Amino acid sequence: MRRFNTLFVVALCSLFLAACGNLGSSSGTSGTTTSKGTQLTGQAASGDYQSVIKNGRYVTSKSRGVNVSQNDNQYNLKSFESGLLTVSKKVYSPSKYIFEEGQYLSTNTVQNWLARKSKSNPTGLNPVNNGKTGANTRNPIYLQQMEEQDYMKQNGKKLTLSGVTIGLGLNSIDYYQKQNYGATYETHISNATIQREGRQIANQVLARLRKKAALRNVPITIALYKQASDDSLVGGNFFSYSVNRGSSTSVGSWKAISEKNYVYPTTSSSSSTGNSNDESSFENFKTQIQNYFPNLSGVTAQAHYVDHQLSGMNVSITTQFYSETEIISFTQYLQQAAQKYLPSGAPIDITVKSAEGVQSFLSRDQGEKKFTSHVFDSY
Amino acid sequence: MRRFNTLFVVALCSLFLAACGNLGSSSGTSGTTTSKGTQLTGQAASGDYQSVIKNGRYVTSKSRGVNVSQNDNQYNLKSFESGLLTVSKKVYSPSKYIFEEGQYLSTNTVQNWLARKSKSNPTGLNPVNNGKTGANTRNPIYLQQMEEQDYMKQNGKKLTLSGVTIGLGLNSIDYYQKQNYGATYETHISNATIQREGRQIANQVLARLRKKAALRNVPITIALYKQASDDSLVGGNFFSYSVNRGSSTSVGSWKAISEKNYVYPTTSSSSSTGNSNDESSFENFKTQIQNYFPNLSGVTAQAHYVDHQLSGMNVSITTQFYSETEIISFTQYLQQAAQKYLPSGAPIDITVKSAEGVQSFLSRDQGEKKFTSHVFDSY
Hints:
CATH class of the largest domain in chain A: Alpha Beta
Low-confidence stretches of chain A: 1-35
CATH architecture of the largest domain in chain A: Roll
Oligomer: homodimer
Radius of gyration of chain A: 23 Å
Structural class of chain A: alpha+beta
CATH topology of the largest domain in chain A: sex pheromone staph- cam373 precursor fold
Number of helices of chain A: 7
Number of domains of chain A: 2
């Protein structure tokens, strides 16, 4: 399945790359004075990076689309990419640096690196196939996805590459087939092994990147991400990162990242919870709105913890609505109920969906008390 | 098809009604002093109605779900219901009145009224079946959907029914089959006929409502809506309304409503446009963002005109994204481009979708200059 997806995406990508042939130079250091040259997108919110526009076009990643095909669970994709931005913000301040999609690792390179090492693929970062099929005797695929992000500094009208972040997504469970189209088996990988293999792969990646002239003297941050299982309703999490100053060819030291994601309500099978107070707050909210509205079919939340503190929540409410006025009234009610019952302090998004798509949404930013709301209307 | 839908929804509704048996009295005049009694949802935005909560539950319409089954084009459903709220706001100010879903017309009543008049259905508001099947010789179905909205005034802790609005949705095209499961034919209905039939039906509805004790002395507003065709990408529009003071049993006078909806870009088949300046603004915006982002698959807008002035626009952008960073950058860019290219003055919503659903959205309220944006993230 993954292989077919990959081929499909490669085909798509070559189309796009062909279509984008007039993007001009993709070198990291570039800058012109004409309005047709390099521009920035502007910031949507303080704390976001501006990004680079070249000749009126967005500069897409050189390995665009590879990660889409590498993730059977789409939560791992979004979580990995936003998480990598969060790590980058610790190192490259959005007020000083400008974001550009990765320009140094091509689709081909990334695909080779993500594959197993073999005679035909000497650059593979995953272990050779040892021919065994037992869950604990085979060599699992450790590295599932990787992403490069480039960070530029503006100097007058010139943008200079001033930092690179590499994210490495490591499997906690490697899914595999013993035969093509056969049953799916799982190799579970311990946290200790994930860390050991991740660090070892990071060392190799750093050494390889230093061989590229443009990256020889640029700070390179490498962050390690533990992929969630394929049936998870929330993505995995970054657990470690390392900032490597220009010219260093092996990773010196690692810093721990304490981030965890949970799904509320917790099911009996996944009894782990981030914080029982937050969970009961959510349960109260859920009970309250289910009493209010006759047939809510799903009320769940993703809760994100940093250093054991709730740092964000995405609530998803699914139901069938029978009129626009029901959606409006329900959204008004949610505004009250969310403020009253959901944990205060952390930013919270609430999305209200029906079979026809998103109907309304509410949001509260960090430090605010009230929720703002929007009902998606139609003329 | 419609019949099966109807049956299905009736079945669903009876389930809900059963489940809501403990809603207590649904009489329009009620009010208690306990916190378990009648409450209000609060306003999400000034200019919105508060709505009624009874015993912690939302008071759903007595004919809930009928309109869902009456519309093969869902744009007619949303547009009809929000449009009816807009008409009501002209008559019953949201600062003085509180909204309640219709409590006087039951599912059964509405279904009978929406059907053809016949021996077994003497209350049908659509003409008898004359047995003919020619597009212009048969009697078409004029009345496609209807909705009741109740408006209450608060007096101390008591809510009193103080106004009712009835919307009548009238077909511009009646779709019919000559045989069950056969080909679909169309009877086109002229604007003059829509108005004549609509007024005549309104008269009957008013007279019938006056026979209900609770509605005898309440102002009743009736509004006429022209349904869009089933293949339209935008809903129909209200074109006329009448405010009838308490106890009047026939409609006195009608006021015109000048509202029109258009889809941009206009297709060659639907060459009508609201305003060519607005359309070229939208075309510029579209060209600009399609240059910026490599593979936007759809950029369309619903434009809403009141008295020939643009009074709102919903822009919908569909594409495949290959990373969260692409969505963030694209949204930032849209914020600039929308402010620069889209018509100023009118409120505008922009929704960015992929196959996985809504990815981000931007919005500018009436009188504002900048767009606010939100990217739907996932942990």
